[in-house]
Design a protein that fits this description.
- By secondary structure, the chain is α+β, with helices and mostly antiparallel strands.
- The chain folds into two domains: about 5-105, Mog1/PsbP, alpha/beta/alpha sandwich (Protein Transport Mog1p, Chain A); about 120-300, no CATH class.
- About 30% of the residues lie in helices and about 35% in strands.
- It is built from eight helices and 15 strands.
- It has helices spanning about 25-35, 95-105, 165-175, 195-200, 205-215, 220-230, 270-275, 290-295, and strands at about 5-10, 15-20, 40-55, 55-65, 70-80, 85-90, 125-135, 140-145, 150, 160-165, 190, 235-245, 250-255, 260-265, 280-285.
- A hairpin with a 2-residue loop joins strand 8 (about 140-145) and strand 9.
- The protein is globular.
Length: about 300
């Protein structure tokens, strides 16, 4: 821990101190923190960086400690004179999902809440990863056996056994996921899987082409431009499907790089799905941190 910093363990490991300098650019702050963490942890990777309200910036990193276990570090930075006030939460990856709500309250000085129960994800897990577009395309299988996991992932060569707590970091590497621009826009675009396939493959460049691909004549020019940017700027498309003894789920992700990261889900109201016909889905903007939270649930202790 840097000299002059303080350590608190009121339900979560929190360190506080100052950072020499301030910039409102999340990516720059994330890079600075990556450099600092690299002196303590191995394989440090920035997961997310974005605004946290009231001028603050929140960053999330993942790495490996010297015992070979995965660790997550979430930092909250606020401008303070000629530098910044920094609070960092250090968490085993297996505890991240359960402790996040509690730790985020502690980071801002609020009373803690009880730990979230995510024990349903701690049982045996099998998963399949499909990377359609990305740094390593292909399919892979994952089988969790307690604290160790067998993984055959695109881009890693031969299958290997790895500490379960490091699996989220391996999935980040396989899919290329990292910090992406945040947006306060919480709109949800409802369409069909067939229409999205036309959007991804057609990569429209005009509003008319976008409306034709999505079979949606009433889309505004603004929405057309946004969706066309997502299709044209796509750097990765992947899905992860899993099942444990008590929990099953799926992530379908469109990583549009500088145009943000998006999630496709099937949770569409029945009446709207019936109106659309086909396989109705919802496309909404998300963040790399929220996706990591789901991945961390898969390795919960």
């Amino acid at each position: 821990m840097p000299a002059g910093w303080t350590l608190h363990t009121d339900g979560a490991v929190i360190t506080r101190g100052r950072h020499p300098g301030w910039t409102a650019d999340p990516s720059t702050l994330a890079a600075d923190i990556s450099g600092g963490l690299a002196s303590t942890f191995l394989d440090v990777r920035a997961v997310d960086a974005g605004p946290a309200g009231a001028g603050a910036v929140r960053t999330l990193h993942v790495g490996t400690d010297r015992r070979g276990q995965g660790v997550a570090v979430e930092s909250l930075l606020r401008p303070d004179g000629d530098g910044s006030e920094v609070a960092c939460w250090l968490s085993p990856v297996g505890s991240y999902a359960a402790d996040r709500a509690l730790a985020r309250r502690l980071l801002v000085g609020r009373p803690p809440l009880r730990r979230t129960n995510v024990s349903e994800a701690s049982q045996g897990m099998r998963a399949r990863l499909d990377v359609e577009v990305g740094p390593h395309t292909g399919s892979g299988l994952i089988t969790r056996d307690g604290d160790t996991t067998w993984a055959d992932l695109p881009g890693i060569g031969e299958p290997l056994w790895l500490p379960t707590s490091t699996l989220p970091a391996w999935l980040l590497a396989a899919t290329g996921l990292g910090p992406r621009p945040h947006s306060p826009d919480d709109r949800v675009f409802v369409t069909t899987t067939e229409a999205l396939d036309r959007l991804w493959t057609g990569k429209p460049t005009t509003p008319a082409e976008t409306r034709l691909a999505l079979a949606a004549e009433d889309l505004s020019d603004e929405t057309c431009a946004e969706l066309a940017a997502v299709a044209g700027g796509c750097v990765a498309r992947w899905s992860l499907e899993w099942a444990t003894t008590a929990w099953a789920g799926q992530l379908t992700v469109v990583d549009a790089g500088e145009n943000g990261v998006w999630q496709v889900s099937s949770g569409v109201p029945e009446d709207l799905a019936a109106e659309l016909g086909g396989n109705a889905v919802a496309l909404r903007r998300t963040s790399s941190a929220e996706l990591f939270h789901t991945l961390a649930r898969l390795v919960a202790r």
